[in-house]
Amino acid sequence: MPLKLPHTPAINTRALAGIGLLLAAVACFAVLDTTTKRVTAEVPLLMAVWARNFFQAIFTSALVLPRQGWSVLKTNHLAQQITRGLLMVSVTVLAFSSLGVMPVGEFTAIVMTTPLLVTLLAARLLGEHVSPFRVALVVGGFLGTAIIVRPGGGAVSWHSWHMLLPLVLVAANTAFQLLTSKMTRTETTMTTQFYTSWIGAILSSIPLFWFWTTIANPYLWLGLLLMGVAGAVGHILMIMSFERSPAATLMPYMYMQIGFAMLGGLIIFDHLPDHLSLIGIGLIAACGTAGGLLTLYERRLSQ
Hints:
This protein is mainly α.
């Protein structure tokens, strides 16, 4: 008698597809960050910001317009779209500036404290109860950050204003994520992505009148193009992953971006974090993963 395997629900297949898409997305973001650090060593920062936004806008348009046409411009909240675009440019400038003064792996770990802060603030803004354990996870994430940027041997100099860059970046990125979460209730994902890409491209084009520099090396142009494509593909893959799996299910897997970033830093820059930095990175990843699992547990209890 043949063995009958149990039927696997379709939702599990969709969840696995969502996880796979998310892993591909965070790999793209690691490629973006690693390439950015390499390119901005020779290309002015503002030109790199422009290239990332411009090429991403072109790539996004090539994907969206053939499917949706100009209907993609229909929005219920233009002011929110503009604000999100402004925040995206701010986050990009802060991220590129941070990558200029610290390694890719440590940078990525600090940025990954954002989901912890977003979850905490979102609950408070909605008037929901926040458990002491969740507060402790946020504190643990920022303790990991403090270890990475510690005095006398951290990823950045303690006596330099550079150490403020990743911290301000986390604050700006948190505002960006909270606004994005609010906009998903009234705006389509592709409309939001289209507006954000082009607002970023337009705003970052303005400084080029003063900061344009001729780039003769074709490999640098390939790097700038790769930054835009990796950013666009990463965002689209992430959207597709969240369409297939709940955010709480996906959240723990987002921290794989730290591993991809460390791998990129090792391959391109021959850099590995020191022992204390690895402890800080591990603490951030552990707190973030626990936060995602806690959210999943709380949602199951509420059902």
